[in-house]
Amino acid sequence: MIETTGLTKSFTRGKTKVDAVRGIDLSVAEGELVALLGPNGAGKSTTLRMLTTLLAPTSGSARIAGHSITEDRDAVRRSLGYVGQGNGGGHNQRVRDELLTQGRCYGLSAHRAGVRADELLSALDLGDLAKRTVSTLSGGQRRRLDIAIGLVHRPPLLFLDEPSTGMDPQSRANLWEHILRLRQEMGTTIVLTTHYLDEADSMAERVIVIDTGTIIADDTADALKANLAGDLVTLSVASADAAIGLASILGSADGVRDITTSGERLNIRVVRGDRALPELLRRSESHGFVVESADLSRPTLDDVFLGLTGRSLRETSLRETATV
Ligand SMILES: Nc1ncnc2c1ncn2[C@@H]1O[C@H](COP(=O)(O)OP(=O)(O)OP(=O)(O)O)[C@@H](O)[C@H]1O
Q: For the ABC transporter domain, which residue ranges apply (predicted)?
């Protein structure tokens, strides 16, 4: 559905050149649900804007549903829906009229535009709001309308740029219910960007981590967490000396990747915490160390980002948001 080779975009800001996207090679198959995850300014939106033909790449190429984004823009646009970061609905239109107008823009007859509008109102639970003016909708309702607008022409591919940013947890969960249902019913390929680590973790089948314009990891959330971060076992012993002594013994245990001590605590990165913990406790005991407490925590995608870049995604995003 999506194939890119060396996709690159540079901007010139005054005398400064900004390399927003630096040679992205990407392949997304039909029906996949992919999250692009990265801090502010990583190049996620610029990538989406190139793939949707809104921005011309500086170099490299991409094909959407077999069509070149530079040579066959009309066919590309017919193949995709794009829900950008801002709300797309005309504020003074009524909800159903907005969908009718969009359908007409895509060349549907008045009758077919009406049928499609009603289908989408029902699919996105907007039926009760059909006569409401867009400006009176809540943030979550507007986002659902945006998605309906993106789907008017039945595209096989839908791009969502931060679909749930700024929503409360309940509205986010509701939006996701709709996204997942649409996908199940229509088989739509979905590519979205998000800042929400938990969202990428639980909803996407594949997570592509982008930093400074390049892809730095691409896998399922589980595989990224297992391969790049690992679980964290924390053991406490009686003293800092005991912790240092025990660390030298546990370092060679199966599945241990890294051990650090902090006072009487040992922080042990392991491949699979559920398997490693019993072995670590057995070893400690057989060498005469008394473990006073043991804790196992699973990594988050933030740990993955930290492992890859040495920076926390959460902090990077917050810091960069603060300096905008
Ligand atoms: N039109 C533009 N002119 C100049 N620089 C731009 C332009 N659009 C984006 N950039 C710069 O390109 C880089 C990537 O921006 P982009 O919006 O793609 O990041 P992002 O990952 O989508 O960030 P966010 O999560 O904040 O939306 C940033 O440094 C941004 O300031």
A: 2-237
Q: How far is the centre of ligand 1, averaged over its atoms, from the C-alpha of 250 (Å)?
A: 45
Contact call for residues 136 and 93 (beta carbons, < 8 A): no
**Residue-level pLDDT at 89:** 57
How much is the pTM?
0.79
With a cut of 50, say whether residue 177 has pLDDT above it.
yes
Q: Does the beta carbon of 11 sit less than 6 angstroms from any atom of ligand 1?
A: yes
Closest CA relative to residue 77, chosen from 61, 60, 65, 90: 65
Q: How many CB atoms lie within 10 A of CB 312?
A: 15
Residue 112 CA from chain centroid, whole number = 34
Nearest-atom number in ligand 1 for the CA of 320 is 26
3-state SS class at 62 = strand
pLDDT of 266 reads: 94
**Which residue is closest in CA terms to ligand 1's atom 10?**
20
CB of residue 38 inside a 6 A radius of ligand 1: yes
The atom of ligand 1 lying closest to the CA of 9 is: 12
